[in-house]
Amino acid sequence: xxxxxxxxxxxxxxxxxxxxxxxxxxxxxxxxxxxxxxxxxxxxxxxxxxxxxxxxxxxxxxxxxxxxxxxxxxxxxxxxxxxxxxxxxxxxxxxxxxxxxxxxxxxxxxxxxxxxx
Amino acid sequence: xxxxxxxxxxxxxxxxxxxxxxxxxxxxxxxxxxxxxxxxxxxxxxxxxxxxxxxxxxxxxxxxxxxxxxxxxxxxxxxxxxxxxxxxxxxxxxxxxxxxxxxxxxxxxxx
Lengths: 117, 111
Description:
The complex is a heterodimer of chains A (117) and B (111).
Chain A: E1 4-7, E2 10-13, E3 19-25, E4 32-38, E5 44-51, E6 57-58, E7 67-73, E8 76-81, E9 90-97, E10 106-108, E11 112-116
Parallel strand pairs in A: 2-11
Antiparallel strand pairs in A: 1-3, 3-8, 4-5, 4-9, 5-6, 7-8, 9-10, 9-11
Chain B: E1 4-6, E2 9-13, E3 18-23, E4 30-36, E5 43-49, E6 54-57, E7 60-65, E8 70-75, E9 84-91, E10 100-101, E11 105-110
Parallel strand pairs in B: 2-11
Antiparallel strand pairs in B: 1-3, 3-8, 4-5, 4-9, 6-7, 7-8, 9-10, 9-11
């Protein structure tokens, strides 16, 4: 299957700093990438949909100025958590979709665990 | 809008069967099933598209009843490796790829 990578896998930062998370599709071009957030023992909550070359679409309740998403190419999307606070600590996972073929599966990255002190 | 999964948790002995259900209050275009192990990313199991199809992969199969807006995942002759949390992801609009996940069903298979 297709491979999606995320970097870093784990990050610890001080409150008030910004953190950038990269999501790359390694062997396919991703027309769409999705960013999810997952709290311990909870479900995956969709944060935003990222399309190459256009602005991301954010889900209700997700602050777009807080979580900046850039989809610079067909293989790279980045999520920047700006001015991070302890409540932003979570597991962030991206997924990538290869094409617009109906029913095409999403491939998930390994996730990034963010801890804000 | 979040689909409801049942049961929330199940414990099995190796070789036993299990069924996990996923119900939505919205009309569905597709249902995606994933398994996630602790601390890892979800792993894709299968997709079911509108049309009431049923799919199978070895001892794991699934059905999709679009009229009832329900999908079920069937695990037969469970193995220890089946342990994990199972999520259904529902797609409401056609071809958006946007998935809304259920709360998850934790499956534990014991020797």
